[in-house]
Amino acid sequence: MKLALATFVMMVTVQGQSPVAEIWKPLEYFVGSWTGEEVATFGKGRGERTYRFVLQGRYLLSENASRFPPDGDRAAEAHDDWTVFSYDIARKTYVVRQFNSEGFVNTLVMDGASEVPRRMRFVAERTENAPPGTQVVLEYEIVGEREFAERFEVRFPGREAPMVIRNRWRRADR
Q1: Which string of DSSP letters, residue by residue, matches 44-76?
Q2: Count of CB atoms situated within 10 Å of the CB of 146
Q3: Are 39 and 152 in contact, with CB atoms under 8 Å apart?
Q4: What is the per-residue pLDDT across 145-174, written as a single tens digit (0 to 9) for each?
Q5: What is d(CA 171, CA 28) in angstroms, rounded to the nearest whole number?
């Protein structure tokens, strides 16, 4: 194990790649606190989110809390998630793993047409605790120095319409 770790560290050093300085530089835009307005298939809500580098700068962690107040016959809803961005050296792409309070875990890979960080699209290669055939797409678009848009879409098998959540996030710090 120690030999494998040492070999990996040497490979990264030889290639001249520093995870924070090189791989993560394009995503530094997101680091900090954000507040959001959310419009979902099931109503309107507000959210708070933070992004920070964790585990010696090797991952970007987002912690999100969204609240949707009651509306008519619909009860209030709460959604929390942790989203972990990693970089797959072998595939040379970003990977996102989402852990949702509803019990779903999504592993999404960046679409090749993405323009990091301005416009990024992630497509699920795996979902846990969802019916087989569930499709998930996550998109980010920077629309200003202190604002970005996010679109999250889930298509469950057998349902005609997808569940869509559109968020507009504004920087709460700096």
Answers
A1: EEEEEEEEEEETTTTEEEEEEEEEE--BTTBPP
A2: 15
A3: no
A4: 999 999 999 999 999 889 999 999 999 975
A5: 13
23-171, which class in CATH? mainly beta
- The two tokens of residue 123 are 């497509």
Residue 152, C-beta contacts closer than 8 angstroms, at least 6 positions apart: 136, 137, 138, 139, 164, 165, 167
Cα–Cα separations (whole angstroms), residue 101 to 39, 63, 79: 18, 11, 6
Chain position carrying tokens 């852990």: 99
Q: What is the DSSP letter of 115?
A: B
pLDDT bin (cut points 50, 70, 90) of residue 58 is very high
Gap between the Cα atoms of 47 and 29, Å rounded: 19
Chain centroid to CA 41: how far? Answer: 19
Q: In the numeric block, which tokens belong to residue 48? A: 């708070």
Domain boundaries, the chain: 23-171
The answer to whether 24 touches 30, Cβ cutoff 8 Å, is no
